[in-house]
Amino acid sequence: MSEYNSNSNTTKKSNSLPIIIGLLIASVGANAYLFFNKQKQQEIIVNTETKLTESERLKAELEKQYYEALQDLEKQRTDNKSLNDLIETQKAELKTQKDKIARMLGDSKNLVNARKEMANLRTQVDGYMAEITKLKDENATLASSNNALTEEKKTLTYTLEEQKKMNEELATAKTVLVSEKEKLTSENTTLAKKVNIASVVKVNNIDVNGYRIKSSGKEVDRKQAKSIDGLRICFDVAENIVAESGVEQFYVRIINPTGETQALENLGSGVLINQVNNEEIKYTSLKGVKYENKQQNTCMNWQPNIPFQNGKYTVEVYNKGYLSGTTSFELK
């Protein structure tokens, strides 16, 4: 009986051992699963906390970077409207980029892309500063050019003013010279006129006779108008020490009884200027005399081959445009 019990216990022990071992194995497996699961959860928590911390840090860095960029841009302001307008445009573009990055930082999955955009933001700010520097340099160059042009304009204005002043002085001097020249010319004209008047050679003893040409060619004196072929005019040339020696021209004018000047161009008639009143006077004939500053007699014929009128005639003799002698005669 005891042997039976002993065997029975042994059998029970033998049957329960695998169960215990199974339970132990199951327990160990469960504990291992719980351990690894807990580790994984802790890693997830750590990673999440890390990402959250990195996101907050990046947000703070973004704010710092943004406001520093704004300050740098504001420092670049001047009184140049174009430059200030450019800065306003750049600030607006920075705000757009900053808001874009902030939205990305709100999602932990976009942190990598957010870092890239923040790097782009820094590059963008550097580009803005370079653009502002370039514009400032261009404005400085333009200002320098404007200053140079202003100085050049001042110089030109001064030069023009000086030239204008000089021209005015020259014009005044010219006016004075012209006035003096006109005065001198007038004086010279007056003097020349006086000299010319003084040099006029007077004529005296003007004698006019009618003549008829005979078949033999000889001239015979006649008094009747219808019986003469021409007129012989003789006069004495007076002495004048002022006049120069040489040929003196004497313009003879024959005025018929009706008051007309006898003149035929083909016989040497022409027009002279009366120096007393500058009027034109027709003359009948021209007589050149070789003058030697002493009294001498000369004659000339007027034979127009047309009938003469009866009545009173006048003869005027001009020298140098002035009346130097006159007489009258009558044909019956």
What features would you describe in this structure?
The protein has 332 residues and is an alpha+beta fold. The protein folds into 2 domains: 2-135, no CATH class; 203-331, Immunoglobulin-like, CATH 2.60.40. The chain has 3 helices and 10 strands. The protein has helices at residues 2-75, 81-105, 111-198, and strands at residues 203-213, 219-222, 230-237, 246-255, 270-274, 279-283, 285-291, 296-302, 311-319, 322-331. Strands 2-1-3-8 form a 4-stranded antiparallel sheet, with no helix packed on it. Helix 1 packs antiparallel against helix 2 (81-105), helix 1 runs parallel beside helix 3 (111-198) and helix 2 packs antiparallel against helix 3 (111-198). The longest helix has 88 residues, at 111-198.
Low-confidence stretches: 44-49
pLDDT averaged over residues: 82
What can be said about the biggest beta sheet? 4 strands, antiparallel
Instruction: Say what oligomer this is.
Output: single chain
Domains, number: 2
Basic shape: rod-shaped
Task: Compute the CA-based radius of gyration.
Answer: 69 Å
